[in-house]
Amino acid sequence: MLILIFVAFFLLLIDATTQWLKPVRIWFSGTVTPVHSLALFPNWADGVIDDISSSLSLKEKNKLQNIELLILKARLQKMAELSSENLRLRNLLHASELLQNNVLVAELIGQSLDPLSHTILINRGEDYGVFKGQAILDSEGLMGQVIEVYKSSSKALLISDSLHAMPVKISRNGMRFVAEGNGNFRNLTLRYVSPSSEIIVGDLLVSSGLGKRYPAGYPVGWITSINPIKGSPYLNVNVKPTAQLDRSRYMLLVSQSIEKFKVGQDEK
Amino acid sequence: MKNNGFFYVGITLFFGLLLQIFPINSVTAFWRPQFLLMITIYWVFKNPSQYGVGFAWLIGIILDIFAGEMYGRYAIGFSFCAYILIILSKRIQHFNLLHQALLMFFVVLLNQLLTLSVSLLYRPSWDLVALIAPAITSAFTWPILLLFLNKIFNR
Lengths: 268, 155
Fold this sequence. Notes:
The complex is a heterodimer of chains A (268) and B (155). Chain A has 268 residues and is an alpha+beta fold. Chain A folds into three domains: 7-51 and 97-159 and 247-259, Thrombin, subunit H (Beta Barrel), CATH 2.40.10.340; 62-95; 165-241, Rod shape-determining protein MreC, domain 2 (Thrombin, subunit H, Beta Barrel), CATH 2.40.10.350. Helices cover 31% and strands 32% of the residues of chain A. Chain A has a six-stranded antiparallel barrel with strand order 1-2-5-4-3-12. In chain A, strands 6-7-8-11-10-9 form a six-stranded antiparallel beta barrel. The model of chain A is unreliable at 260-268 (pLDDT under 50). Chain B has one domain (6-152). The longest helix of chain B is centred in the C-terminal third of the chain and has 25 residues, at 128-152. Chain B has seven helices and no strands. Chain B is an all-alpha fold and 155 residues long. Chain B is globular, with a radius of gyration of 15 Å. Chain A binds chain B through residues 1-2, 4-5, 7-13, 15-16, 21, 24-25, 28, 31-32, 35-36, 38-40, 42, 108, 110-117, 119, 121, 148, 155, 162-163, 183, 185, 246, and chain B through 17-18, 20-26, 29-30, 32, 52-54, 57, 60-61, 63, 65-73, 75-76, 79-80, 83, 115-116, 118-119, 121-125, 127, 130.
């Protein structure tokens, strides 16, 4: 009987060190995904109750949302102008082409069983063109990246996982850092920040786009505290993620494509 | 229902799995009782000759598949817990509810210790709450679960 335990341990060693079990994982995803969706039944019930009870307030909701839409559209107009201005300025500078981001809406269908690992399961997979390394956003900021793609679902690693680190920069002055997750949904840490670097509490960190994994310019977090570490030449900097990593149910998958007119093309 | 057919075992385990994978708040997730392990143990207690270490191992592998992390992790915990319990099964039969709850605390603690330790192979993080919290809640859940399941599968 103890042989089984050794078999399990052997399996674990194989899985931890090689990629051999990946096809098995993909093969099982067909059964795993529906059950994960089934486990969401309280949410369905919630939806049904909501549908019944709120048909009266629907009109009111609609009205509010229309107003919100108007405000957002007005903001977007300004953004469009800024974006084109930015493009023109970049053109003057002969800078590289701007990237345009396309999004796909996804819903959370599962979370990791182990509270120490911050991975989630989302309901978009290969059939929607999701690819490994694709960035995930919620309405507030960057959430993480896709690490495994299955047929109709995919697994994503959140930026707060202790295995995750991402390149960021301060939006105010462009200083670059690496933001590491530490297993806490409300906290990231910046590594190797020297005391002479110009950072202050309240600075907004955005993705820098280095490493070509995350699109540049999406908010990642706010700096909440900067403390010296005893006996270390570096500072201990804590960052609060802007995204609601453990709350968001709907998220966006971002993919990049190069914007229509390439800048600096007449130069070449 | 005397012979507790595979159907009932399957149904209870399926509900256990749903309770285990149901997404909850990140703080509460640490305190989630190990439902699937407890239901597995229920059947191991009830019929050790039919549902033994191999059975627990299989359920562990199924949970591993649903967890989507490294395969074999929960299988180690489940089968080891079942192994210990089968060795002690003669003694456990005379335990009252309180003693069983206490036993469950240590069994879940053992399971957490094993699964967390082997996860150090691929993820260097360790958390004391993740180790103890499920054991405490499982100990409190066990009497309720036991009475509930006994009520259905009238012993």
